[in-house]
């Protein structure tokens, strides 16, 4: 028996819980996606070409990224 490094609860398998590992992976992918979305779309170069809805979504994601720092 071991303590899970992610949720800090007892793990009967001696390893981290599989769902804890998956949850951490998804969270890291989400953060990576948020940090790279503006670069992928080259928002700074062609912001006039994007629709109003897309601009609003990207601005919201950028604000979330800045708030996390």
Characteristics:
single chain, 69 residues, mainly alpha, two-stranded antiparallel ribbon, 2 helices, 6% strand, rod-shaped
Short note summarizing the structure:
The chain is 59% helix and 6% strand. By secondary structure, it is mainly alpha-helical.
Number-wise, the strands total 2
Largest pleated sheet: 2 strands, antiparallel
Portion of residues in beta strands equals: 5-15%
What level of helicity do the residues show? 55-70%
Calculate the terminal CA-CA distance, rounded to whole Å: 36 Å
Explain this structure:
The structure is a single chain. The protein is mainly alpha-helical. It is 59% helix and 6% strand. It is built from two helices and two strands, in the order ββαα. The chain has helices at residues 18-41, 52-68, and strands at 2-3, 10-11. Strands 1-2 form a two-stranded antiparallel sheet. Strand 1 (2-3) and strand 2 (10-11) form a beta hairpin.
């Amino acid at each position: 028996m071991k303590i899970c490094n992610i949720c800090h609860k007892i793990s009967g398998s001696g390893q981290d819980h599989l769902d804890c590992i998956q949850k951490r992976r998804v969270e890291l992918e989400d953060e990576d996606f948020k940090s790279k979305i503006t670069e992928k779309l080259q928002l700074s170069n062609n912001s006039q070409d994007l629709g109003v809805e897309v601009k609003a979504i990207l601005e919201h994601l950028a604000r979330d990224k800045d708030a996390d720092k």
